[in-house]
Amino acid sequence: MAEVITPEILQEFKDRMHLDDDENGNLLRMLKASHADLVRVCGEYDILTDEVFKELVFERSRYAYNDALEYFYTNFLTQINNLNLAKALEGEAYE
């Protein structure tokens, strides 16, 4: 399986957060953990093509970076539910 968090995704997140290269390892771990957690909750989405999913991965990573992860799901519940609903409706289209 191809690496989901590409160097380009990492750089985009660093640029957004105004972070330096000395945190790459930590940021990569946060992005991977955020991606895995959101796939578990929302279903499989392509971070390279689905902007809403990528935004959620970035936001969850930002909350983790700022030690505020406990607030992420409350603050982004609508977006998470929308992705869940979209995935459920996508599944119905194939039945």
Descriptive account of the structure:
With 95 residues, the chain is mainly alpha-helical. It is 69% helix and 0% strand. The protein is built from five helices and no strands. Helix 2 crosses helix 3. The chain is globular, with a radius of gyration of 14 Å.
Keywords for this entry:
95 residues, mainly alpha, 69% helix
* Number of distinct helices: 5
Helix/strand order, N-terminal first: HHHHH
Q: Can you give the mean pLDDT?
A: 91
Structural class from helices and strands? Answer: mainly alpha
Secondary structure elements and their pairing?
Layout (H helix, E strand, L loop, with lengths): L6 H11 L6 H19 L8 H15 L6 H4 L1 H17 L2
Q: What's the short version?
A:
By secondary structure, the chain is mostly helical. Helices cover 69% and strands 0% of the residues. Helix 2 (24-42) crosses helix 3 (51-65).
